[in-house]
Structures
1.
Amino acid sequence: MTLAVLGPRGTFSCELAEKIKEADEEILLCSTIHDVFVSVTENQIRGIVPVENSEAGGVGETLDGLMQTDCKITAEYYMPIRHFFASEYGFDEIEVVYTHPQSHEQACEFLRSLRDISIIHTSSNSQSAKEAKKALNSAAVTTESAAKLYNLPLLKKDIQNSQNNITRFLEISSGIILPDKPDKCSIVIIPKENRPGLLYGILEIFAKNGINLTRIESRPSKEGIGRYVFFIDFETDRGWQDMVKNLKKITGIKELGCYKNRSLTE
Ligand SMILES: O=C(O)C(=O)C[C@]1(C(=O)O)C=C[C@@H](O)C=C1
């Protein structure tokens, strides 16, 4: 099997893939999260994508991929995220900092404390290190493994705003795999009408069935201003199949998968 992730080697996604891959599984490095969804769909493989961070919130490219492709969620993982500031230059020589936009948000307090620097966004934390290695008077917000890989000295460790910085990752696959006893399910509510009480009615169905929501996030439906879809995750310790049937009576739904929480072993 092959496991598709955001590359180049050294991203957090890649670090997670290294931890969870099967012994004979290869890692396929993709340039963007969108490309991970494309590879999973075209090659019938599995992939790993970041979906939300405790500090910076939802990862738009992943939410769009879930909405726009037939990929299904088959597991979730939580990973502590530590950001590193790496450069071949001293602090007073640095003029440009490369950072992934999610990491920029997660380390904005440290980055704000740097004076007279320009920030350039990149496609991944590893790409940031790659760029900083090439450009004069530059630094990167990166992972420990990418700093090592590109031979960039660490100027400061743990530059994330919060010491409890965590990113939730999803395993996605091209087919539906329903585990015996899933921990959670994810759906997208796609409202077919705009009327008072629609969202209230949807949430009431969860409440009446005693089903606990673990996340609700609105995202523009891309059909015009003020039009939204709602990403919902819920626990599956109570009968949820009938509840989903009831939801379908009042709203459009896309089922994204029911899955296990897989904890990471060090
Ligand atoms: O660039 C990386 O290292 C990634 O794996 C992507 C990503 C993300 O998009 O959320 C993953 C974890 C961190 O939250 C920051 C960046």
Note: The chain has three domains: 2-81+165-173, 84-156, 184-261.
2.
Amino acid sequence: MGELPVIDVSPLFDGRSADGAARQIEAACVDSGFFYISGHGVPAELIARMDAAARRFFALPDEVKMKISMARGGRAWRGFFPVGGELTSGRPDLKEGIYFGAEREPDGRPLSGRNLFPDEVPELGAAVLSYLRVMTEVAQGVLRGVALSLELDEDYFATGYTADPTILFRIFHYPPAAADDGWGVGEHTDYGLLTLLLQDDNAGLQVHTTGGWVDAPPIPGTFVCNIGDMLDKLTGGHYRSTPHRVRNESGRERLSFPFFFDPGWDSEVPPLPSLARRDGGRARWDGQDLRAFTGPYGDYLLGKVGKVFPQLRADVLD
Ligand SMILES: O=C(O)CCC(=O)C(=O)O
Ligand SMILES: [Fe+2]
């Protein structure tokens, strides 16, 4: 009770029968929408390299970090924000961080463009770009499992919603916090399809399952995987996009690395007709009715991001 499952996803990558993994993914997605993945094949060396570079960056003085501030990223929404700069649930979060995304020429749409990498830590940019490539493969593999779990063709996502995915990647640095200090990340659900979260050795993530709040501490060699609002919407609520939050009470600094793998910017994500009758009609935690949103994913994402960065929204979008 209260434990999130660990699912070995290696059959989704090595051609063995993936039925068992798909069934475990289904059970986890119906239950809490959260599980750990092992057998993902991400090199430990790459993780160590990115972790070390990120630590070097966050140890720099604020005025140096602000050289790549999000204000400089403009419409691409890239770069550094200081502690208190993001308001996940309406209040300033107790964390600082860097926003990255797919490295591409700006195409005129919000959130597209080039990353801002710090000159002072040149190895960070190289590690992040490698990590984005590797995690794209991991995410497509997990989505093969999700597709199989829904009795869809295993390439359902790769040839559709994630043929040209929206990719966001963040590195967060949480200073140590006391119990009455407020949240590192306020309660929220993720917006897209899939989040793959790498955590350092420090706990802090909590997930609101039907049994109440449970901890999702780091397990060596795994990622925490959770589904976002678009998978909830696609499945008519059969799969759950579940609220979670972070408070770093470890007494140490905590780093986390969430990778968000989302539908293409222009994709609309209507519910699958095959699941229409399975909707339990459950109300969402925040009262939002996902079915009421019928526009493209990009509009949904901008509505969410604009709320957590009100100033940036005012500068960039309005
Ligand atoms: O830092 C974490 O452990 C989780 C962060 C998170 O939930 C998010 O960025 O959406
Ligand atoms: Fe999240």
Note: Residues 26 and 149 are 5 Å apart (CA to CA).
